[in-house]
Amino acid sequence: MDGWMKMRYVKPLTLFQDLLKTNAAKHGRILGLDVGDKYVGLAVSDPENKIAMPLSVLLRKKFNIDMMAADFTSLISEFSLSGFVVGCPFDRQRPSPDAVQVKVFVDDLCKTKKLEGVSYTYWNECFTSKNVDLLLKPLTLHPVELKTMLDKFAAGYLDYVNRIGLNLKIEDEAANS
Questions:
Q1: CATH classification number, 8-176, choose in 3.50.50.60, 3.40.50.11930, 3.30.420.140, 3.40.640.10
Q2: What is the mean pLDDT of residues 8-18?
C-alpha cells in the first residue's frame, strides 16, 4: 500500500471484532456508505451496533472530496465512529463497473489524508439495494428520498456480524461451561 493511504482496509468480520475489543466506554459505532453516481447515502449504527439508521445524503462531486472527508471527520467525532462499511455491488464475486466507482471513491478519500486510522471494509450490497429498489420503484419519490429509503433497508452487514457474534458467544460459553 502506498504511503498516502491513511485509511486501513480490513475484512468485514475483522472490523466488527476490532469494535468489540475496544473498551466499553469507547465502544464505537459504524458509518455505512452507499456510494452512487451523484450521492453518497450515510447510515449510522446505534451505540450497540445492532441496527442502522439513515443519517444524511451527501452530494458526490469529484471536486468536493476534501469537503466530504472533512464531513466524515466531524461525524467520527460526533458519533464516536470506529469504522466505515462501504456498500459495494459485486456480481458473483467479481467487481461490477459500479463497484469500480465505489473503490475509486474510497481511494480518493484515502488520498485526502484526513481520515488517518479509520478502518473500513466493503460489504456486498448487490442484492439488498436491488431488492429494495424494486419494492420502492412504484412510489414516486425524489431521488434523495429514494436513496435515504435504500440506506434504511441496506443494513445487511450489521445483521450478519451480529448473527456471527451471537454464534461465537454461544460457542464460547458452551466451551467454558
A1: 3.30.420.140
A2: 85
